[in-house]
Amino acid sequence: MQARLFAPFRLTGRHVLLALIGFFGTIAAADALLVTSAFRTFTGLEAASPYHAGQVYTAERARARAQTARGWHLDGTIARDGAGIGLTVSLRGPDGAPLAGKDLRARLERPTDARLDRALALAATDPGTYAGNLDTLPAGQWRLVLEVTGPSGIELRRERRVTIE
């Protein structure tokens, strides 16, 4: 007769306990990893105070109506310039005549990460034409925000999505 080297496997309470601890420990570790990753990549809220944004909604609508009543036409073109970009903006009145002497601001905002937003300084190159450059800008989706400011605040604001190759 031969002697057995190994005893047959027998499921005990200790084995069941260790399997349950291992299973739920793996789930808890995965949850902790995902929660930590979510908090590290959270970029913040779109509005600093959503309640305040709701309160000023009526004023924003009045400002939008005033912009429409002016009849100004604001158009911008973006061209890749090496690692950066060049932005040219045209501002025209309701009759199509160029509007000179205005103060324009431009921002390129990343829709997913406000930390990557970039401001452009625009300078008048011709009457009604303004231009600015950024030395470096990564490719991808951006929101171009153009604002014409005056003594009473923002006189005209336009936003549009652009894709930078």
Describe the overall structure.
This protein is an alpha+beta fold and 165 residues long. The chain has two domains: 33 residues; 93 residues, Sandwich (Immunoglobulin-like), CATH 2.60.40. Helix content is 30%, strand content 38%. A hairpin with an 8-residue loop joins β3 and β4. The radius of gyration is 29 Å and the shape is elongated. It starts with 12 loop residues before the first helix and ends with a strand.
Kindly list the characteristics that best describe this protein.
165 residues, Immunoglobulin-like, 2 domains, four-stranded antiparallel sheet, elongated, FixH
**Average pLDDT number:** 87
Strand content: 35-45%
Compute the number of structural domains: 2
| CATH architect. name of the largest domain | Sandwich
Distance between the termini: 79 Å
Structural class: alpha+beta
**What is the strand tally?**
8
Radius of gyration: 29 Å
Low-confidence stretches: none
Oligomer designation: single chain
Question: What's the total helix number?
Answer: 3
Main β sheet profile: 4 strands, antiparallel
Q: Portion of residues in helices?
A: 25-40%
Q: In order across it, which strands form the biggest sheet?
A: 1-2-6-5
Give the class-level CATH name of the largest domain: Mainly Beta
Helix-strand topology string? HHHEEEEEEEE
How would you name the CATH homologous superfamily of the largest domain?
Macroglobulin (MG2) domain
Shape label:
elongated
